[in-house]
Write a structure and sequence with these properties.
Layout (H helix, E strand, L loop, with lengths): L2 E3 L6 E4 L9 E9 L7 E6 L4 E4 L7 E10 L7 E6 L9 E5 L6 E6 L5 E10 L6 E6 L4 E4 L7 E10 L4 E9 L7
Antiparallel strand pairs: 1-2, 2-5, 3-4, 3-6, 6-7, 8-9, 9-12, 10-11, 10-13, 13-14
Keywords: Glycoprotein, Repeat, Secreted, Signal
Protein name: VWA1 protein
Subcellular location: Secreted, Extracellular space
């Protein structure tokens, strides 16, 4: 049976039983998004193959796939399967630092995809390795970091944690303002 493995947001690998050989024919592979049959793509594959990676696909899309053995010896019925690509896991593309004071600043980020479970905001003074972590709900796109040292540069890393378990990060630098003298 035709089936898919290694599914990502933009590709998957098809595997099928060895029906043909190099000498006895080739396969025609047709695939299209279920919602857009007109977007069908066709590929020919040598009879020696039993797998193929389809790439350049749309994320979170169900594809109808048909493998048609074109044999000059036997008739084989087409094998079909449906494969759904994963949601695209994009890293935060911008991290903005605002409302910076001596002891706190505001961190916000974008975009906020539905497939994110939570964000981890890691921050610590530069140079140094004493970082702290704030956990933020996946529906939110900002947080306030407090209890900081004045006049200090911080490295802030926002990590998106996806339902799939994957993580993607982006960092920015933030400077706290000088505290009051006295």
């Amino acid at each position: 049976r035709l089936h898919a493995t290694d599914v990502t947001s933009s590709s998957f690998r098809l595997l099928w039983p060895k029906l043909l050989s190099q000498e006895t024919g080739y396969y025609t592979l047709e695939y299209a998004p279920t919602a857009d049959p007109a977007g069908k793509r066709t590929q020919q594959v040598s009879g020696a193959h039993t797998s193929l990676v389809l790439s350049d696909l749309a994320p979170e899309t169900t594809y109808e796939v048909a493998l048609i053995p074109e044999s000059n010896v036997h008739y084989f019925p087409p094998q079909t399967t449906r494969v759904m690509t994963l949601a695209e896991e994009i890293s935060p593309v911008q991290v903005l630092i605002s409302e910076s004071g001596p002891r706190s600043f505001h961190v916000s980020w974008a975009p906020v995809p539905d497939s994110v479970v939570s964000y981890q905001v890691l921050y610590g003074p530069l140079p140094g390795n004493s970082a702290k972590v704030l956990e933020v709900d996946g529906r939110h796109n900002s947080t306030v970091v407090e209890h900081l040292a004045p006049n200090t540069t911080y490295l802030v890393t926002v990590t998106a944690v996806y339902r799939s378990g994957k993580e993607k990060s982006l960092s920015a630098k933030a400077c706290t303002q000088e505290g009051e003298r006295g």
